[in-house]
Amino acid sequence: MPDCCIGVDVIVGFPGETDAHFLDTYNFLNELPISYLHVFPYSERPNTTARKMQDAVPLKTRNDRTTQLRSLSEKKKRAFYESQLGQTRMVLFESEVRNGNMQGYTDNYVRVVSPYDPLMIDTLVPFKLQQIDTDFLMQGEFETAEISR
User: Fold this and answer.
1) What single string gives the DSSP state of each residue in 1-47?
2) What is the pLDDT of residues 91-113, one digit of tens each?
3) Mean pLDDT, rounded, for 59-73
4) CA-based radius of gyration for the chain
5) Looking at the predicted structure, is the pLDDT value of residue 145 above 70?
6) CATH number of the structural domain spanning residue 14
């Protein structure tokens, strides 16, 4: 699927993760043609084998690594969204309204925002992607009156 938005889940700071391991992970993820990351710091859970493992990574190190990967994710997401500017994509708008706006997803998983219009809810609408806002929501305009219900 051309222009597919691909996300990757990553856990950082698993026991035994060295600085070299983390750097390898960072470089690997940086080189992958992915669109964003879901980054989670490792956290001990009661009654798990991992909780008993040696070489726990300090909490501050886990948090620092999480911050670094989340920054990488923002960079990748911005690059992906910028590659979509000017395109017209089909969007399915959701019924939730925030601050007078509705949100939805394009057919390739770009989150969009537009002024609320109850007629557009639960419909597939051609939408021209024009601008990325500060919350990583794509703004734009409806291309035509053609609506698929």
Assistant:
1) -TT---EEEEEE--TT--HHHHHHHHHHHHHS--SEEEEEE----TT
2) 999 877 888 999 999 999 999 99
3) 98
4) 19
5) no
6) 3.30.750.200
Closest alpha carbon to 32 in 93, 82, 75, 88? 75
Burial class of residue 92, CB neighbours in 10 A (0-12, 13-18, 19+): middle
**Alpha-carbon span 37 to 15, nearest angstrom:** 21
Q: Is residue 120 part of a domain?
A: yes
Residue type (1 letter), 130: Q
Give the model's pLDDT for residue 99. Answer: 87
Question: In terms of residue numbers, what domain contains 128?
Answer: 88-142
Structure tokens at 27: 């470089």
Q: Which two tokens stand for residue 55?
A: 């070489």
Q: Are residues 17 and 40 in the same domain?
A: yes
The answer on 49 and 21 residing in a single domain is yes
User: In the chain, pLDDT over 90 holds for what percent of residues?
Assistant: 77
